[in-house]
Amino acid sequence: MDDLLAGRAQMGISLAFHIIFASLGVGLPALMAMAHFVALKKKDEVWLRLTERIARTFTVLVVIGVISGIVISVELALLWPDFMERAGPVIGVPISLETYAFFFEAIFLALYLFGRDRLSPWAHWACLIPVCLGGMLSAFIIVSVNAWMNTPVGFDYVDGEFRNPDLVEAVFNPSMPGEVLHMIAAAYVATGFACAAVYGTAMLRGRRGRYERAGLGLGMTLVAFWILPLGVGGDLAGRLLHENQPAKLAAMENLRETEKGAGLTVGGLVIDGENRFGITIPYGLSLLVGRDPDTVVKGLNEFPESERPPVAPVRYGFTVMTAIGTLIAIGFLAYWFGRWRRPRLLESRWLLRTLVACGPLSFVAIEAGWIVTEMGRQPYIVYGYRRVSESLTTSSLVDVMLFVFTGLYVLLAVVCVVALRSELKLTPERASPKVA
Amino acid sequence: MEDAAFTFLWVGIALYALLAGADFGVGLWVLAARFAGRGDDIRKAAFGYFGPVWEVNGLFMVFWIVTLYAAFPRATRVLATALIPLVLAALVMFVIRSAAYAMLHHGPERYRGVSTWAFGISSLVAAAGLGYAAVAPVSGFIRGDEVENAFYTSAVALTAIPLTLAAVAHLAAVVLAAYAAERHPPVVEWFRRAALGAGLLVLPLTVVFTIALADQVEYVKDRLTDPVVIPMVLGGVLIFLGTVALWRRRFTRAALLVFGGYFAGLVGGAFVPYPYMVLPELTIAEAAAPDASLLGYLIVTGAGAPLLVAALLALYHTALGPGRDGDRVRAT
Fold it and tell me: How far apart are CA B99 and CA B104, in angstroms?
């Protein structure tokens, strides 16, 4: 395997692994805070058991997430030293701010997990507020840095170096609003569905007590808070792509030629470079990205071959993401319609199965979205300025690193599954939480 | 501004070396506990300390690496390229150690034995690897983006390994003694003796390492008679006073003095090769980011560091100190 492919594969594997834990790290504290709040307010044992269960799960996930996060921070320098050297003056300060957010999240989480017997009940609960804020701020900064790589601004580019950095302009770059809103909302929605899926599974197995219903409702409540921002963020991200990254947008739709009144192709396959078997909605793409059926959308023909992202993975990533997005919207609407008008709907196996499927699928959608974001920027690491191939380390150990790190992620995945199974075998009664 | 950023970098490295170093040392004592009479009690105390703090302590690695990105991007490239084999090896051990701890703390009972061994051995190898790598920038063996092969068998690199192991064992035993005095009184004496023994090892190993470094690097040798070594001497005095406090069973005071001593020694030691960051290839000024980035970094650090210290103290006090109801023993 050539070094560039090995380096890209390693980074892809690392991010694909870490993003699951990072997303749960954003969403689970919110679930814990909501459940614990209800438990304290109502002095309700069921909600306290629920909080305890989520906290136990989170403890394991956080261990694996912190390890993979530390590994990625080192990996970035080991694999892409040229990128870190050149872009460091622009993105280093935001990342150092993110470190503090990460620290506060970890410190207050440790206080929450280990301080139960040492803090008053409400002080104990309040530890979750900085955990939630830290997770959100962390996600904001990291996604903002990624958005900067997509639309780099806030510097003078001289002799291959990013000079005179304007850090505020760099953080609040043109792609930031759409990407940040879409990703943070996706993290909450995916976590909400994961929670709903766990308790939905229990209900499908016949355990339909108050505890399981509370767990399902808790997850779907988190989804309710964030599903609209998810859609708004996605729409905004699409419009910003039209303005700032037309090559990526063209690859997402596999739009070969520039078109006025471009249609939106739903589903289908990319065969011989053409969209096949998809359903095209006339003017759909122009309406979506320009709010006008006559909007001109740039096609791939506008870009030299060497500047085009690989179409198939970007197109398929986008298709998978939007298909799952549609499914989770249906699941969400059906659940809340049931809560509002048709309580019997909540007992139906098809709805429960849909919600259970939405749990893992939400994370598949996040992965697919990141494939779109990252592959869509190719061949650049900093769009329009530095190519990925220019940034790779000169070390001869790149392929060794790929095998070593892949092995480590497999180890971490196994440990995560074994530890989670072991933790969750502990019944809430054994954990014996006390209602204050 | 680059000197201020360099100081923060070394404060971060020193805090990582001390806090995570003590955690690495926990691995040694967990292994040693297998051969001690009160093995279970020792392990319980060791993990009782380790559990609440290890993730946060490990994050100091992210802190100083990110400082390198933000404030010294050129040094990031040089060190990341030159030290790949060592950093890779240390990282592998770091992951194995963390995974082993996750299994020990959260996994099924049947994996406890193998997890304990994996935790202990990987802790020691990771610490040794990091100590080995840490001396490379001052050893004079980094040329361009590469470490000369002679580094790996040089006296300075080889003497860094036992010194690192003795230091992490010392730090861990001192802090575990202080922790056990609050929570696990039956094993306090065991940790006290371990700390005194490890402390005795650190002194001659420091002397041997310093001689090897001075012999290898002329620039460092010349600097050893400068006032720049005063913080290191002060560090030695503090560690000595800490040892006296430990002898007299003043455990908290001993821990503070010993940590303060190592901190002064590490941060002071960083300025011995001044103005070089990678001797003799790269000075601090050459490695530094533009002023706007340094200013941004210093503002973020100036605002964040006090909050971070306050939050850390709250964590250590709450998770490691006496409980709300005066409970003295709490298993994690």
Answer: 9
Disruptive mutation site among B64, B88, B295 for chain A (greatest number of A CBs within 10 Å): B88
Taking the C-alpha atoms of residue A233 and residue A363, their distance in angstroms, rounded to an integer, is: 17
What confidence score (pLDDT) does residue A434 get?
37
Q: Give me the residues of A, 301-360, that contact B with CB < 8 A.
A: none
Q: Do A111 and B314 touch (CB under 8 A)?
A: yes
> Distance (Å, rounded) from C-alpha A419 to C-alpha A412?
10
Q: What pLDDT does A342 receive? A: 86
Going by C-alpha positions, the residue among A322, A400, A305 that lies closest to residue A361 is A322
Q: Which residue has the tokens 């190898």?
A: B125
Residues B45-77: tens digit of each pLDDT: 888 888 888 878 877 888 888 888 888 988 888
Give the closest-approach CA distance of A115 to chain B in angstroms.
6
CB-based contact (8 Å) between B324 and chain A? yes
Q: What is the pLDDT of residue A435?
A: 36
CA B231 remoteness from chain centre: 17
B232-258 burial, b at 16+ Cβ within 10 Å, e below that, comes to beebbebbebbbebbeeebbebbbbbb
DSSP state of B250: -
Kindly provide the b/e burial profile for residues A276-307, where b requires at least 16 CB atoms within 10 angstroms of the residue's own CB: eebeeeebbbbbbbbeeeebebbbbeeeeeee
Average pLDDT (A217-238) is 95
**Distances from the Cα of B321 to the Cα of B43, B44, B251, B252, angstroms:** 18, 16, 13, 11
Nearest to B191 by CA among B110, B123, B107, B258: B258
In the beta sheet, which residues pair with residue A382? A386
Is B36 in the A-facing interface, judged by CB distances under 8 Å? Answer: no
How far is the CA of B126 from the CAs of A88, B25, B95, in angstroms? 27, 11, 9
B172 CB neighbour count, 10 Å cutoff: 29
Q: Residues 86..105 of B with a Cβ closer than 8 Å to A: which?
A: 87-88, 91-92, 94-96, 98-99, 101-103
Beta carbons of B88 and A63 less than 8 Å apart: no
B147 three-class SS: strand
The pLDDT mean for chain A works out to 90
Distance, CA of B270 to CA of B284 (rounded, Å): 11
Cα→Cα distances B129→B8, B152, B202, B207, B266, Å:
23, 11, 18, 20, 17
Reply yes or no on whether the pLDDT at A325 is more than 90. Answer: yes
Can you give the pLDDT at residue A426? 55
Within 10 Å of residue A122's Cβ, how many Cβ atoms?
A: 11
Residues A385-421: pLDDT tens digits? 999 998 898 888 888 889 998 999 999 999 999 988 8
Q: Do B102 and A60 touch (CB under 8 A)?
A: yes
Confidence of residue B322 (pLDDT cuts 50, 70, 90): low
Phi, psi of A271 (to 5 degrees): -125, 125
- Give CA–CA dist B127/A342, Å, rounded: 61
In terms of phi and psi (left: phi > 0; alpha: psi -120 to 50; beta: otherwise), the region of B146 is beta
Which of A76, A165, A420 comes nearest B290 by C-beta? A165
Residue-level pLDDT at B326: 41
Of the two residues A426 and A141, the one the predictor is more confident about is A141
How do residues A351-361 score in pLDDT, each as one tens digit?
Answer: 999 999 999 99
